[in-house]
Amino acid sequence: MTMDLDASLKEELSAMERAGTLKTFRHIASRMAPEVAMEERKGTVLVLSSNNYLGLADHPEVIAAGIAALKEYGAGTASVRFICGTFSIHEKIEQALAKLHHTEAALTYVACWTANTGLIPAVAGEGDALISDAFNHASLIDGCRLSKARRFVYKHSDMADLEAKLQEAKNARRLFVITDGVFSMEGDIAKLPDILALAKTYNASVILDDSHGVGVMGLNGRGVPEHFGVEGKVDIITGTLGKALGGAAGGYVAGSQALIDYLQQTSRPQLFSNALPATIAGSAMKAIEILAHEPARVARLRDITKVMREGLKKRGFRPLDGASAIIPIIVGDTVFAIRMSQALLEEGVFITGFGYPVVPEGVARLRIQMCASLTDAQIDFALDTFEKVGKRLGVIV
Ligand SMILES: Cc1ncc(COP(=O)(O)O)c(C=O)c1O
Q1: What residues have CB less than 8 Å from 200, skipping those under 6 apart?
Q2: Above 90 in pLDDT, residue 87?
């Protein structure tokens, strides 16, 4: 018999609650910054799980640029790009993004989710093949699902398996290798030079989602291609404006002029969904400018990430290795990750526990994400709090 929708949804929610896996939403009542006010709690808490890598979300110049664009262009475009929603600020930010990524052109979307799911089905269809890393972000996975191309998944960062899949798919009309730059749940970095070499052998195009790499990797924060010295060699780069570049929202595709021209004509979110609001373009453009002029922010982020990682190890934790600003600590099951997150919050450290289905059951984790504007005192406080809670919960002795 057909079930009542709400009743069946409530039943599933109750099951999550009983299993201890129901997510709790906290309400931040101030700007995103290392310390925030929280509705549920008196005083401030230290945030160690935002994507505000460079600390630009509350930067006065970034906020002012957003306000200026809001005043100049109004609340929104009230149109998709091709009807009457292309404003001069879109052209400006797209030029800045192309420059950042050493590509001919770039195109913005309202989110990187939209960019990935708008890009992949546009460029890959019947007769084509997509070869995707097993740990790729959900938006890349969904982008692949929306495409009529054949789909292959290679074992995470396993170059032998990637080559096997390239062999299997080599007769495709168009061939794509798709990877995150920095893998968001592990914090490790794609083997980009190897991927590029393999792709070249098979005449495949590489799609790199560098959402967690931009602002973080490379001496100037231009991402994983800069880190490996291969700027200008990646066919297609996608990214977000919602992390290091101001933290608002928005995403983009950067690549050849032909690719961008084609996406403007065919990518469904470009045709059927409103353009990026000017205020976001304004604040993100300022963030890109700050990134270009203040490499010290990127260096600070790198240095304090090292301090945090070493500090955790000294206290008995075993964070996953990596060079990005993501430091995962595997704690076991989802229920325990949520419990530890709650215990940390009670002590003033806000860090979300991740469990199933975001990561497989058994490897639930706390994912620390660093921010360049954290002070040394805040990092010490975080480490001391981790130690206190870790001991109390038996994660460390
Ligand atoms: C690798 C990666 N790609 C894409 C996205 C989606 O970005 P946005 O928030 O701009 O949609 C995320 C966000 O978590 C991400 O981590």
Answers
A1: none
A2: yes
